Predict the structure.
Amino acid sequence: MIKPNILSAVGNTPLVELTKLYPDLHFRLFGKIEALNPGGSMKDRAAISMLERAVAAGRIDDDTVIIESSSGNMGIGLAQACSYLGLRLICVVDAKTTTQNLNILRAYGSEISLVADPDPATGELLPARLNRVRALLSTIENSYWPNQYANESNPLAHHGTVQEILTDLDDNLDYLFCATSTCGTLRGCAEYLRDRGLGTKVIAVDAIGSVIFGGRKAARLIPGHGSGIVPQLYVPNLADRFVRVSDLDCVIGCRRLVKREAILAGGSAGGVVSALARVKGDIPAGATCVMIFPDRGERYLDTIYDDEWVAEHFGDVSHLWESVEEENRECVMAI
Ligand SMILES: Cc1ncc(COP(=O)(O)O)c(C=O)c1O
């Protein structure tokens, strides 16, 4: 299939049936492999959507400087799109950004603005990054902040994600599992499904220590899903149910996924796999379930897929994915 350019290769990711992950299942289970977007994650979709709509609205021209706070998948998605479109991108990152992601951003030609110290008022890095974005916007003429936490083009991009799933399944979708951070994926998919009146149940999967659905903020090891602020895109009652997963749940889910299905996926996909283990007893026989797997496992080789890193943080836990008896282990906490 010939594509006119790399950006048009974003989307249309495969839906893969998972028959080995949990062998005793009484329903059909699929994974939507967003790692197969050219930039390696589902954020490619939102990055293009935000830029395209800003161009159409006359907000971006050839000389506009794009400024965004992201050390991960959105930064990489924007770096890919800006590189192709010939736009200058400044990515505001902090000291926690992995060397691999910094190298990917630089390889696409993105400039890096590093925030070394937390915001003095709150002690947090996120407000310090947002302050840096505002400072850059006020000093750089013709600059534009896509702001993935508030930009409606972010959820709109995921109408495409769920449309692809529905097309592949002839509209037979009973359960959809989505990891959450900006709520772009959750909102885009849930609103589209609700408007279509298909009755699909949407399960949001969030990190313990994230505040999106309430609760207390706590330190988290695995980047990607979860948020220390309630995103502006969040609206109540998007999900029929939500499940919170721990860092260890993400590790267990990822290791199971690669061991049993040969799918090397990122941390939030592991969280979704563990969330499914938690709720699978409540899913009726014959149902069709899809889990969205947001990104590539290669970005987690030094953490989730590194035995020493896992042992250092969680002790000797390999039996949790090696043994099928552990299959019904519940998430550390679920609501
Ligand atoms: C790996 C990963 N999983 C899940 C999410 C959550 O997606 P969303 O921001 O659409 O809620 C993100 C967002 O950055 C992510 O990078």
Summary: Confidence is low (pLDDT under 50) at residues 330-335. Residues 96 and 295 are 19 Å apart (CA to CA). The longest strand covers residues 88-94.
